[in-house]
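Pipeline run #58 for the internal structure catalog. This entry was flagged by the ingest filter as a single-chain record with no existing model, so it goes straight to prediction. Upstream metadata was stripped on purpose; only the residue string is passed forward. Reviewer on rotation: M.T. Logging verbosity set to normal.
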Amino acid sequence: MRVRQSLGWMLRACRTLGTQPTFRNRSMFARAWPDGDRVQPVHVSTIQRWEAGLVAVPRDAIKRYEELLCLPTGQLTAVFDLLPGLTRQPRPLPIATSGDLEQLPAQGGRAGVLLDQVCSSALVSGAEWDELTGLLSQWPAAFLPPRMWEAMAQRLLTEMLIADGTAWAQRYEALARLFNHPTGGTAAIDACASAAGLRHHQAMTSTVAALGASDHSDSIRAMVAQVHNPTNDRALTGAVAGLAETVWRGRLKPAQRGQVLAVLQPLAGSGDGLDFWSAELVQRLTTTPRVRRAPARPLDDVHRNVVDRVTSRAVALVDGPEPGEYGELGELVHCLLFHENPDSQLGASFALAATPYRGPLAAALRQELGSALAGPAGWSTTVLAALRALGGQPELRLAERIVTASGIPGETVRVAAFAIAHLGDDTSPEWWQNAISQRLGAVAGPTDIEILRGLAYSAGITGQRPALKQLRTDPRTPFDSQAAASWWLDLPAHVLASSHR
């Protein structure tokens, strides 16, 4: 994934397709850019180079786009922060300037207010997590009582695991900052490693994979331990994904490399969910650690036709795109649907979802899914997975129908059950009751149990407590699904409420 070009395209799409038509003219946008002493003028050619991906965009400029285009705080900056980590590019370390040093007293006061907030039952937004960890990253020697680091790390991890969209991306980056904080990193590592040891934890993959953002020996040790003796399959998948990032940075010791390689070689090429990450790790462990992975495979005719079809449908639904947007839009759609690296798919989904193309792409993919349901499960699950990031109410209604319909492959139903969590929160209580009763009456194998776990996940994310209580108390519910419902019901109310802010 070409991060700089994708970010530039995202900015251009938001400016040219936004709600303020005057800003489609780059010169008019440049005229609106200054704001007294707070924001200095910018030349129109600089904006052009940013949006073409020719030069890196400063983070403050991303924030100015949000302000001028009246976008929610974090909609663009969260993507700016997220993409380098997903594509394994080094995160820039904050550099304190003389101006920063002059502001330390005021910033320290603000950090104190935020610390009190996150260590209490007060609500905390993603923007506030971003602000707090940004301030702490400027003080590598910051001293806080251990219990405060622990409380902050535990809450941040839990909120990240149940957040979605921008709220998730802000917490993901905030946790990465904590991992790399010289005095606070240990608490963040301990929070993830401890959660990874809980067999019925409901977000195990991302919990363990998050450890890959840290180079600390404790983090590496926790991931290696999960490879040797995984808590469950989800923990193993997370450990392999996290180690892939660690190996790319060349952080494993020789003995660790041999141990991990011995476990992973049988998994490479297995065809299951571990196939990509295990194959990547084996490749890196048997060659030079810093060898970069080859680009995504070229599109074959079938994939090219799909990308062209989806892209052209989306373009037809927006008002006045620039011709220059077509190529990058197609590249991102290709990455979203067909890239073999799940992190690259995730990055593409965030870049696309941040722009006015989100709704049109969801409509185009929904049309694609309508015909895919009659075919093999593989294609329908690919489209459903993409819709998790882009869809809204129409796609929610479709996912609901898939879960309760007959004759649809179990894997497609499983993906739809998990997708409901990300498509909205207005599913009726009657649907939940009927869907859970129907699925409980059809439990015949592992896929059916996973469908119920997906329903528990979606009910938890969307706050459907009656549905979770139904799963926990119905005697037909498999033990794993009962444990999942209990996990969600036991989460603190203020953490659940904060995760959606």
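catalog note: DSSP finds 28 helices and no strands in the chain.
catalog note: The first helix runs from residue 3 to 16.
status: ready for reviewer M.T.
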